[in-house]
Amino acid sequence: MSNARQKILARLRDAPRPDITSIGEGAVESPVWDLDERIRRFTDRMTAVRAEVVETSPNTWMQALQVLCENKGARNLLYSAASPYGEAISRQPPVAHPVTTDLERGRWKTALFHEIDAALTTTLGGIAETGTLMLWPDTREPRMMSLVPPVHIAILEAGKLFNTFSEAVAAMQWQDGMPTNALLISGPSKSADIEQTLAYGVHGPKELVVLLIRD
């Protein structure tokens, strides 16, 4: 090791340590809302950026999905048969032409860019404070499902709606293992030009609909 490097490391080791005992003092405490308030805040923030929130139940979400597909004019729906809700969709398709993510053959990938009207994904949870969805794409529900189709339908269970992002990270113990791609989604894709004319669907889905399932 060179003398110059030894001197630098020695200075770092001998440098005074900062007092960290006061870190966090005076910080704003995280809000603690009940479920009704979390849903209200989440819905307000989502609708403010032109997303839709459809509140439903474990017994009626399939009917809500079918009505939603009809209203959006979705002739087909891309979904994962391996997802928690995929089995029910396979038994009772809400559209005339359901398409599953058959990764072995990859047939859905070609259709995705040319034929798919809407895609349905599950979510890891939601954040009430900011009106945000959390997704962890994997081989069952790849990132393209929430990126390419013009309509993204996301299923959010109300019990997984957290007050804040920090609360969600702590509760789900993200530190124990994160995916290579964690997504935070707050509304449909949008962009503005130099004159700040807002356009939707430029870099992703033009429409975002959240099926909020509450017991």
What would you say about this model in short?
The protein is 27% helix and 23% strand. By secondary structure, the chain is α/β, with parallel strands linked by helices. Strand 5 (125-127) and strand 6 form a beta hairpin.
Write structural notes for this entry:
The chain is α/β, with parallel strands linked by helices. It is 27% helix and 23% strand. It has helices at residues 3-14, 35-48, 61-72, 86-91, 107-114, 165-171, and strands at 52-56, 76-79, 97-100, 118-122, 125-127, 132-135, 151-157, 161-162, 183-185, 190-192, 198-200, 207-213. Strands 1-12-7-4-2-3 form a six-stranded parallel β-sheet, sandwiched between helices. A hairpin with a 5-residue loop joins strand 10 (190-192) and strand 11 (198-200). The protein is globular. The model has no long low-confidence stretch (mean pLDDT 88).
Low-confidence stretches: none
What is the helix tally? 6
Q: How far from one another are the termini? A: 64 Å
Q: What does the average pLDDT come to?
A: 88
Helix content class: 25-40%
Task: Give the biggest beta sheet.
Answer: 6 strands, parallel
As a whole number of angstroms, the C-alpha radius of gyration is: 22 Å
Number of strands: 12
Q: In percent, how much strand structure appears in the residues?
A: 15-25%
Secondary structure class reads: alpha/beta
Shape: globular
Element string (H = helix, E = strand): HHEHEHEHEEEEEHEEEE
